[in-house]
Amino acid sequence: MNVKSNAQPKVDMAEKLVYSFGDGSAEGKANMKNLLGGKGANLAEMCALGLPVPPGFTITTEVCTAYYAGNKKLPGVLETQVKMALSQVEKKAGCVFGDGANPLLVSVRSGARASMPGMMDTVLNLGLNDITVKALAKNTGNERFAYDSYRRFIQMYSDVVLGLDHYHFEDMLQQKKSDHDIELDTGLTADDLKDLVSQYKEKVQEELKKPFPENVHEQLWGAIRAVFDSWMNPRAQTYRKLHDIPAAWGTAVTVQSMVFGNMGDDCATGVAFTRNPSTGEKKYYGEFLINAQGEDVVAGIRTPQTLADMPQVMPQVYKQLTGVFDRLEAHYRDMQDIEFTIQNNKLWMLQTRNGKRTAAAAVKAAVDMVKERLIDKKEAIRRIDPLSLDQLLHPTLDPDAKKTVLATGLPASPGAASGKVVFTAEAAEIMGLEHKEKVILVRIETSPEDIHGMHAAQGILTARGGMTSHAAVVARGMGKPCVSGAGTLAIDYAKKELKVVQHTIREGDIITINGSTGEVMLGEIPTVQPALSGDFETLMSWADDTRTLKIRTNAETPMDAEAAKRFGAEGIGLCRTEHMFFDGERITAMREMIVAKDTAGRKQALAKLLPMQREDFIQLFTIMKGLPVTIRLLDPPLHEFLPHTEEDIKQVAKSAGVSAELVRQRAHELKEQNPMLGHRGCRLGITYPEIYEMQAQAIFEAAAEVMDPSPSRRGWREAPGDGGASGNALAPAPFPKGEGFKVIPEIMIPLVMVPKELELLRSLVDRVAAEVMRKTGAQISYLVGTMIELPRSCLRAGDIVPFAEFFSFGTNDLTQTTLGISRDDSASFIEIYRQKGIVEHDPFVTLDQSGVGELIQIAVERGRKARPGLKVGICGEHGGDPASIRFCQKAGLDYVSCSPYRVPVARLAAAQAALEK
Amino acid sequence: MNVKSNAQPKVDMAEKLVYSFGDGSAEGKANMKNLLGGKGANLAEMCALGLPVPPGFTITTEVCTAYYAGNKKLPGVLETQVKMALSQVEKKAGCVFGDGANPLLVSVRSGARASMPGMMDTVLNLGLNDITVKALAKNTGNERFAYDSYRRFIQMYSDVVLGLDHYHFEDMLQQKKSDHDIELDTGLTADDLKDLVSQYKEKVQEELKKPFPENVHEQLWGAIRAVFDSWMNPRAQTYRKLHDIPAAWGTAVTVQSMVFGNMGDDCATGVAFTRNPSTGEKKYYGEFLINAQGEDVVAGIRTPQTLADMPQVMPQVYKQLTGVFDRLEAHYRDMQDIEFTIQNNKLWMLQTRNGKRTAAAAVKAAVDMVKERLIDKKEAIRRIDPLSLDQLLHPTLDPDAKKTVLATGLPASPGAASGKVVFTAEAAEIMGLEHKEKVILVRIETSPEDIHGMHAAQGILTARGGMTSHAAVVARGMGKPCVSGAGTLAIDYAKKELKVVQHTIREGDIITINGSTGEVMLGEIPTVQPALSGDFETLMSWADDTRTLKIRTNAETPMDAEAAKRFGAEGIGLCRTEHMFFDGERITAMREMIVAKDTAGRKQALAKLLPMQREDFIQLFTIMKGLPVTIRLLDPPLHEFLPHTEEDIKQVAKSAGVSAELVRQRAHELKEQNPMLGHRGCRLGITYPEIYEMQAQAIFEAAAEVMDPSPSRRGWREAPGDGGASGNALAPAPFPKGEGFKVIPEIMIPLVMVPKELELLRSLVDRVAAEVMRKTGAQISYLVGTMIELPRSCLRAGDIVPFAEFFSFGTNDLTQTTLGISRDDSASFIEIYRQKGIVEHDPFVTLDQSGVGELIQIAVERGRKARPGLKVGICGEHGGDPASIRFCQKAGLDYVSCSPYRVPVARLAAAQAALEK
């Protein structure tokens, strides 16, 4: 009855578990990161390059995996292999581990495949005991140094390996300093330190009821185990979860002979980048500290000098160091992040790795390196994380500013913004547009009715909702910062205040949100405006030359369309017409339509919407100037448009000429248990054909207008009060070639479930098209297609495609139906699912390839079988997600469509996907 | 851009469009119903059998189809073929159409593939004009008869063909009778009738500005077209929609020489069944009327005699007639519904067809015919409509009772019931259980909280919700009548009244509902109780011997389980544990659990539920006595259990020891946009494992109990207050073989989306099982499986199946997700979809085979590939639908599970499906 799922990895007895390096040769290489971790692999590589690296060896990550699989037992053969490796280190270093005359001291460090800075444990100066410390003192001629090292070792080892909290030792150190009335550790003499060493050891005996280990081999194995153990400590686990690092990867352990930057003024320790990691500028960048160990730099007691000072202080070493920089960058063909130590004027390399950098630096460095012929364009494209481009498009917080973080929500739409808190869309509009103040709209959650307020605000903050909540999606579309789902905020609309921890924020108080991190901060934090550099344009042009997927945008407002075009969109892939109905008088006409008693009443209300809708499309067509524009006919359930407040209800009743009671009743009738699966999409087009008729008419009349904008051609203006396509009996003269330009509207019917729906609705569209063409004399080419959003329509794609000239996958809804997860409600469990490893990613952010993806593949295959060359795209939120774009490339799609600010991300991701092929 | 979808059927010029019959031979046959309609095919068959049938011919249904496809033009070759056929009729009848001396008169009748009684038009006595009427008078020696026939013909033809409403003629007839002060038509003399004929003809001239056609060929073609036209009249369209008859079938037209039952006292007309159509008894059954035409029987002016009188009145003809009955029944091997006319002591057969019958009659006749060796068992099984068996299981309304229909809703759960109207579940309980009154629970819609009220009521009536709404599903489960979605009812809970048309029904007023028809009636209508006959058992036993699918039931109460077992269920396929939590103190404990602050609080509340839940399972296991019982762990979102009224909120707060504010807040937190796609199913098991732990513990402890009911063995009773499975350190003695019996619980994890969910939860179940076994010493065998309800889990079945010992398709939810339709919200458009032909059936009633069905097939295939022999069933509402059962058989499922009252339906449908294979 039991099912075993986790195969237990075992270590082969004959397997090589330990890799040595030092003295110009190494058993490992840079490309063995999976086995040796980043640190171990790069140390080996540097050794092989002949760079000065203290000798050592690396125990592989497979040992770590075996350690956890085998109930924390280390493989038996490890001991032998470590012994052999250690004796090689002794040979290379010319000293012996635990030797009373010439002792070898080592560091024991972690090193995983991916960098996890500071998450795991390290032990330095290992190999010291009461005997070897004396030899160290003698050999270095520096007793104070030797006992300081010993003191540090006991403290670190006791903390990391023996589990004795370091405050025990800090207290004693502090006591010693105050006894002598000194402030800095450096004021302590060798005798003070000797005394501290014996106090420390007594403390260990007292707390653990056993002495501090004098046996250096016992010390070594204790430290190795401790490093492996630290792979599973809570902070490492959290870090891995945040960075999608599997626990199965494990860490390697590198044991390396110690070098000392704190043996005198001809010693130093430092870190450096081969280029500026903030800007990408080709200039050495880093800092160093004379007579210090790495931990002193971290402790921040002394301020390090910048690398620019080094030529004065240590000219010889500086020359050697920059030579190493150049060598490493040429070798790795990437900017390096380097750690080094100088011991008695001798340079030792302790680490090199590809340097982390800002998006701006990444772009500049990549473009520069192509110019320098260090890498080719393909490599430049591959090197940039597409998602990081977002940083370049939005204002960012000044990294040096101080901040008080009130809460952390989800980073729902990138960028930072400050402004006065408002709690309603109306207040946002009044303060934002009329009083010209910067505001942050704070809502428990937003709805389509809040859109005008979102437009007026600098940023949006919600207490509820995920990365794909209404607030998040709309804000990303607008390119405005948004933090969603900040659950600790207690928002009280009535009192117009927001409580969080001990703070109470009232309307008008200023806050700052960072939509890239999810942070909500008190007061105004200065921001830095981005500037798109020429390097960015260069990189994008390379991406455009490389990719095969077209990139369109999801946009319905002129502002969004213009932004998207600026960012390189090649058309609109999704214009959600419903978003056009929430503003001002439109919402009233829309509501009138919904509460109308019959078709005639609905038509009357729709006639009011027609000219506004037509103007919308004229604007969009004009902005996109000949690029394809895909327009989705009305999709959401009607009740989304209905009024909630008594005042609004009365207004609608008055304007529609019905009783308030009727409006309330209609609202009640339209209420649904599961609106996502309710009376929406083309179901509305079937039951209320007049709505789609009006929309089709507006589209075709707009197309006619932009094709020839001369006023006399406008068929609909010739017949005053003519709200319908029919009724104008005078056939106009043939449509001439005017100053306009051609548009080919792509009309998209949403939520098709069975072929017949599309058959009926496309004949409706064809009929309206014919009427408009007759009336205006224009010849309009257009496509009719469908949004594939249901598992059934994927399966029946072959039956649907006879009526569809294109498919566009609405992957938001397709994910909801395929997985049976409501986007609005998943927040309550999806995070627990991620924590428990049940799902890797939020399926609304990254496409579920093995579920939703298979359905997409089925639909593409069956659709193209019945209609070869069918145009296929995707227009869900996934259209801007690199992993999902990679899938779209593989699935053979023609284009992806994403929110305007994701267009550059998509362009780059599509280029990377094309390179993978 | 246009897509043509409807191929236009054309008639091949060389095709045979007309089939003749008469005088012992025929071109058609009984199996040509599709071409000749039921009437035409059976007339041909009777001819070929040598029975006395007036000669005639049938124009095929293909002509009808061509007529509509070709803009109501008849194919050119038809005229020639009709001419030839008519001349054959003349030859056989020995008279000539339109002849002044010996005229042929004909009837022109419709006849579709399926019987559509009274829906289309008929013309009799065609061929009469001012000349032929005289010949008819002379040849029959009955002038009155001839002119009466002529009068009838003009009236009928004018109505049917010329579109002149028959009241014009009725008025004149009435006037004539009152002029002569007579009451019956028979009082009119030949001269009166002659006068009427000329008045009729004047009326035609006056109204239509042209004379009544004297040309008999013009008459004939007019009638043929009129019959074709009547295929599309509104009442025929409505009938087709109600009976799922495609418009494309078309009707045939049969032209047949007239015979007269009204030429004197040696004439008669009659209808008969070869067996009793109400009871199935093998006894001739019918009635006849001397000296009358068919329409006189319909008019109901004279009371017909029963067939039992005929031996006295017409002994010779009776003998001949019963000979024909026997011949026809032997030939068709089924009960026949026969029309005949006797003209001057000569018998003529006008129609035979398989007789409509009640379910009881169908069963008896089928079983009898097997005994008579007329048919075999397979045929008997095939002959019964499985859905009709429902009639046998529920009380039915007395068909003779008078009734005032207030409204018509959906026939949601069959059977009839009367009772006092109550508007709340509480009132139902008080009046129904305490006062022992019959009540009908009337709600706008029901929710799980109403279940106790539904139990207490005789029947349920709702204003909202479809055939698969909560009310409908639960009522069918309980076997109680239910009418749902009676939208015209205006229910006012506050006033405790219900308004419909001009009636106001108050609490306590009596109504009757008929869940088989959807009717809601005023007052109490007498009902007839059904009795399951021995024939029923016989038929069922044949079905059981034939079928390969197992039939289980969906049941959670002892009452349901017992009913299902009585009806032949072979186990429980779906025990919805959540239904067990709504009663009395359980709901309070459940609510306590939901509002608890932490895991400890939840466990405390769950400990209260444990003994009750254990008792539930003990009862179910005991009833099912060794048959499999599949238990679904908690499935619905938690907010379904939360209190709505302030009083309930306070009670929960008190009992849980929290503030009312907290309860309200928790309810608000749990509210979801789309609960169907929300935090439910195994998502609850993942986030609140303690719930599933409690349920698993209850199941295993119950299993241990029934396996050995000796009190000393009950581990959980030994440790008082021990709410958990652990905590009892004393290992009991090995479990002995007691007086109990073995049960193998099948534990079903709902709504699995990814394999990991099932992996985690089955290990939870395994752990609890081990604990219970350790504590009780019992060895319990059990299965763990999953409900497949999401498209994703169908696609990933191969990955899920390593953790599942069985699959059960939850086709309700799978339909919702695959089609993107909420069961609760589909009513607003699904009816329009049916009307427009977009969907054929409600997909919640009959499985959508090409969408949901393909996913099921994929899941079965992938599941069995990875785990050969995997047990697979279905437990949605579709489990009781014959068409869906046929699909399940084809898809290779092992069992279907349906509501208790559907079990006999499923047994028979499964047998039919097995026979189809």
Number of helices of chain A: 35
> Which structural class do the helices and strands of chain A define?
alpha/beta
Largest interface (C-beta under 8 Å): A-B, 60 and 61 residues
Compute the number of strand runs of chain A.
34
Assess the beta-strand content of chain A as a share of residues: 15-25%
How would you characterize the largest beta sheet of chain A? Answer: 8 strands, mixed
What Rg of chain A do the Cα atoms give? 34 Å
Calculate the mean pLDDT score of chain A and round it.
Answer: 90
* N/C terminus separation of chain A: 43 Å
**Shape designation of chain A:** elongated
Assembly context of the chains: homodimer
Low-confidence stretches of chain A: 1-9, 717-737
User: How are strands sequenced across the largest beta sheet of chain A?
Assistant: 15-25-24-17-18-19-20-16
| Fraction in helix of chain A | 40-55%
Show the helix and strand layout:
The structure is a homodimer of 917-residue chains.
Chain A: E1 18-22, E2 25-26, H1 33-48, E3 56-59, H2 61-69, H3 77-93, E4 96-97, E5 103-104, E6 106-112, E7 122-126, H4 132-140, H5 143-160, H6 167-179, H7 190-208, H8 216-230, H9 234-242, E8 251-257, E9 268-273, E10 285-290, H10 294-299, E11 305-306, H11 310-313, H12 315-332, E12 336-343, E13 346-354, H13 359-371, H14 377-383, H15 390-393, E14 396-397, E15 405-408, E16 410-413, E17 416-422, H16 425-434, E18 439-443, H17 451-456, E19 459-462, H18 470-478, E20 482-484, E21 490-492, E22 497-500, E23 503-506, E24 510-514, E25 519-522, E26 527-528, H19 534-546, E27 550-554, H20 558-566, E28 572-576, H21 584-595, H22 599-624, E29 629-632, H23 646-656, H24 660-670, H25 682-687, H26 689-707, H27 715-718, E30 745-749, H28 755-776, E31 783-788, H29 791-795, H30 797-800, E32 806-809, H31 811-819, H32 827-835, H33 849-866, E33 871-874, H34 882-890, E34 895-898, H35 903-916
Parallel strand pairs in A: 4-5, 17-18, 18-19, 19-20, 27-28, 27-34, 28-29, 29-30, 30-31, 31-32, 32-33, 33-34
Antiparallel strand pairs in A: 1-2, 1-3, 3-8, 6-7, 6-8, 9-10, 9-12, 10-11, 12-13, 14-26, 15-25, 16-20, 17-24, 21-22, 22-23, 24-25
